[in-house]
Amino acid sequence: MNDFSNNPYFELFTKQYQNQFNIGNSTYNKRIKKLNRLQYAIESTYRIEIQEALSKDLGKPVVETELTEVYAILGDIKHAKKHLKQWMKKHKVDTPLSMLGSSSHIKFQPKGVCLIISPWNFPFNLTFGPLVSAIAAGNTAIIKPSEMTPHSSSLMAKIISDVFTEDEVALLEGEVEVSTELLKLPFNHIFFTGSPQVGKIVMTAAAKNLASVTLELGGKSPTIVDTTANVDKAAKKIMWAKFLNCGQICVSPDYVLIDESIKTEFIQSCKKWLHIFYNDNPKTSDSYGRIVTNKHFERLNSYLENAKTLNAKFEVGGETDSTSKYIEPTIISDLKPEAQLLQEEIFGPILPIVTYESLDLVIVYVNSKPRPLALYIYSKSKASTKKIIDNTRAGGTCINNSVLHYANHNLPFGGVNNSGIGKSHGFDGFRAFSNERSVLKQHTFGVTELLFPPYSGFKEKLARLTIKWF
After folding, report:
1. Which residues are catalytic?
2. Is pLDDT at 450 greater than 90 in this prediction?
3. 49-58 residue pLDDT tens
4. pLDDT of residue 144
5. What digits encode the pLDDT tens for the residues 181-214?
6. Cis link prior to 454 (omega < 30° from 0)?
7. What is the mean pLDDT of the segment spanning 169-184?
8. Which one of 86, 123, 222, 302 has the fewest beta carbons within 10 angstroms of its own beta carbon?
9. 43: confidence class by pLDDT, cuts 50, 70, 90
10. How many angstroms separate the Cα of 30 from the Cα of each of 81, 110, 159, 395, 411?
């Protein structure tokens, strides 16, 4: 190992490094006990404090906290507990006839010392979710949560120190400098959730130590609504998915591509559902959150000002309040292609509407942008749905719904290229934190020994027969 003695976190790293095989060789029962302790902490001990922290950091309603944070974490834990015994077993694979006399299997071994860098938008969910996978796979972990949600980060530090010893799991609070120093250390695996821009920095740092990475990133996730869709149901689901957590979701519908002929009907339905969800004044609604920081508020507000200068049409909303970091649920149409709302990932409660005249042009438009984390299709046409899926690329897709694919533990979650590298959740999360070690065992005489030197004409013929038939 290189000299990292000047790194302020090297001592902590060393504790976990020295303990990694003890943790890595832990039994199924020991891993289940850890998951049980974490489950009890989230479900019982700290549940009210989690609600309070998220209210302070994001103005998050209790129901959203329960569904998108508490329920999500408990779902991860319960799924892992249910399947862990099977995941930990050796996975037998076929052995070719040319290797007669041997057997083969895959042994899932922990990668070792892992770093989890988590974001601010779902601080508990996106911290403890990867941690569940790391624990299930038998790793040690150091966690660096976002400094933008200080109440949540402080509470998570309390939970981690209560449930784990620091030589197995530790959490470090602080600004970006903490992440910078941690990324210099030779972790075996790094799990990062955040923006593509920072993801590139993480990947560059990981390359210096040849650490494997899982990058959960983002991008502009399109939502396509065609003329066969149930427009009202589509509007209902899109309004829920877009303005959940005040639009601060990596898989949030970033913009809608809709057939010109149903645009007016769709917008009217959107207005109806926004009124049902958040009343006439969302600012006073207990069901609507706030923007995380002043910096993010100003960024979003600048997008709105840019749209105004380009004479875009504000179909719904547009009101802002810097004091409370409030941005009204906003829908904008007639945007020029150069508008910031169509160029940058929005990550806030603003939904651009883009009309189209043909499905072929939709596909061209989607493919003109970096590959998104999610793509949503609202259509009753199997042919159109198939055409879109076959001719675009995205990390995941929902048909006639939005966001919900994230909640299915049997589906791998992750992006592609600019929107992410690697997959998580369920078995895919376990696998992300594991090395799939190939094992071949020779039981009897192996026919390959017939081809050992010294070579002869007979062995040359035997080699050709092997190539031809095996």
Report:
1. 216, 250
2. no
3. 999 999 999 9
4. 98
5. 999 999 999 999 999 999 999 999 999 999 999 9
6. yes
7. 97
8. 86
9. very high
10. 11, 15, 19, 34, 26
Question: 48: Cβ–Cβ under 8 A, 6 or more apart, which residues?
Answer: none
Per-residue pLDDT, 1: 62
For the chain, the three-class secondary structure string (H helix, E strand, C coil) is CCCCCCCCCHHHHHHHHHHHHHHHCCCHHHHHHHHHHHHHHHHHHCHHHHHHHHHHHHCCCHHHHHHHHHHHHHHHHHHHHHHHHHHHCCEEECCCHHHCCEEEEEEEEECCEEEEECCCCCCCHHHHHHHHHHHHHCCEEEEECCCCCHHHHHHHHHHHHHHCCCCCEEECCCCHHHHHHHCCCCCCEEEEECCHHHHHHHHHHHHHCCCEEEEECCCCCEEEECCCCCHHHHHHHHHHHHHHHHHCCCCCCCEEEEEHHHHHHHHHHHHHHHHHHHCCCHHHCCCCCCCCCHHHHHHHHHHHHHHHHCCCEEEECCCEECCCCEECCEEEECCCCCCHHHHCCCCCCEEEEEEECCHHHHHHHHHCCCCCCEEEEECCCHHHHHHHHHHCCCCEEEECCCCHHHHCCCCCECCCHHHEECCECHHHHHHHCEEEEEEEEECCCCHHHHHCCCCCHHHHHHHHHHHHHC
Angle (nearest 5°) at CA 304 between 303 and 305: 90
Q: Six-digit token pair at 190? A: 């790094």
Give CA–CA dist 335/332, Å, rounded: 7
Rounded Cα gap, residues 280 and 47, in angstroms = 31
Q: d(Cα 2, Cα 167) in Å, to the nearest integer?
A: 20
Please tell me the predicted confidence (pLDDT) of residue 134.
98
Amino acid at 106: I
Are 267 and 234 in contact by the 8 Å Cβ rule? The answer is: no
Cα–Cα dist 249/403, whole Å: 9
pLDDT at 330 over 90: yes
Which single residue is written with the structure tokens 């509470």?
155
Distance CA 143, CA 131 (A): 8
Q: Are 214 and 202 in contact (CB under 8 A)?
A: no
